[in-house]
Write a structure and sequence with these properties.
Elements lengths: L1 H18 L2 H30 L5 E2 L8 H10 L3 E6 L11 E5 L5 E2 L4 E6 L6 E3 L8 H10 L3 E7 L10 E5 L5 E3 L3 E6 L7 E3 L8 H10 L3 E5 L7 H5 L5 E2 L6 E3 L3 E5 L11
Parallel strand pairs: 2-5, 7-10, 12-15
Antiparallel strand pairs: 1-4, 3-5, 6-9, 8-10, 11-14, 13-15
Length: 270
């Protein structure tokens, strides 16, 4: 018990002496000053430099610019660039910026990543549909729904029975072309006013018969082609008979049926 009292008394004497020591308080003040100085240095100098507080960059508009040109302009402003490739859109030039994020005129910190969407994807290919015989309006809608465009619609020089229906197209049905490409359409203005004589096309190939009828300003449709035959195969088939007798007079644009099969024999008793 006596030893405990002695230690308490010694501790109190030491603390009292320490409290009266001017060197202790001076050292403590110097240490506090150093800590405050370090705090101010980090807060006012090092930290703003690291986080770039108080500085901002206006994001320029790089829309419709080639990607490399856009990247150079952004990097000159201490901005990072990320390229985002989208599916190719034929309505825009290839390799140009079609979107950016953040948008133009946004204020961002230096070093901010700017995401540029570039029209550089692969070209999609689509098959040209068969539009012959359709109305112009339906043909145009079908092309657009398939990712194609109409370059021009012009009246066909050779008449055809139904006015304002497609008589020809370029590219041909079944051709594979890039998405966004254009198709040219010819349309009928109705039957002509003049009369022409139907030629005899039996015994000719479908291709020869059709051409001879076109030369006479007449139309044709093939009857009896087997399902699944390619157009080139059908064109080589032989015309066995035709719907109107040779030498008959009809108006320009009249449609002649070309049959690939012989006329079936009449039933017994007829």
């Amino acid at each position: 018990m006596a030893n405990l009292k002695t230690r308490v008394t010694d501790t109190g004497s030491y603390l009292g002496a320490l409290a009266r020591n001017k060197y202790f308080w001076g050292g403590l003040a110097v240490l506090a000053g150093v800590l405050v100085g370090l705090y101010l240095l980090v807060d006012k100098a090092a930290l703003p430099s690291y986080t770039r507080q108080g500085t901002a960059v206006d994001v320029p508009s790089v829309l419709n610019q080639p990607f490399e040109q856009a990247r150079a302009e952004l990097e000159e402003r201490d901005l990072a660039v990320e390229k985002v490739v989208q599916r190719y859109n034929a309505n825009f030039p290839r390799d140009v910026v079609v979107d950016q994020n953040p948008p133009p005129d946004a204020r961002v910190k230096p070093g901010r990543h700017i995401y540029l969407t570039v029209n550089s994807g692969e070209l999609n290919r689509v098959m040209v549909p068969d539009l012959q015989g359709l109305s112009l309006r339906e043909a145009v809608n079908r092309l657009r729904s398939g990712g194609l465009q109409v370059s021009e619609t012009v009246p066909d020089s050779i008449p055809a029975p139904n006015a304002n229906t497609v008589t020809r197209q370029n590219p041909a049905p079944g051709d594979s072309i890039t998405e966004g490409s254009s198709v040219m359409l010819w349309y009928s203005t109705g039957l002509g006013r003049e009369y022409v004589t139907i030629p005899d096309v039996t015994g000719l190939s479908v291709e020869e018969a059709q051409q001879q009828l076109l030369d006479a300003r007449l139309r044709s449709v093939v009857i009896g082609a087997e399902g699944g035959q390619e157009p080139t195969e059908v064109s080589e088939e032989i015309v066995q008979r035709q719907s109107r007798e040779p030498g008959t007079s009809v108006r320009e644009g009249f449609e002649i049926r070309l049959y690939l099969e012989e006329e079936p024999p009449a039933p017994p008793g007829d």
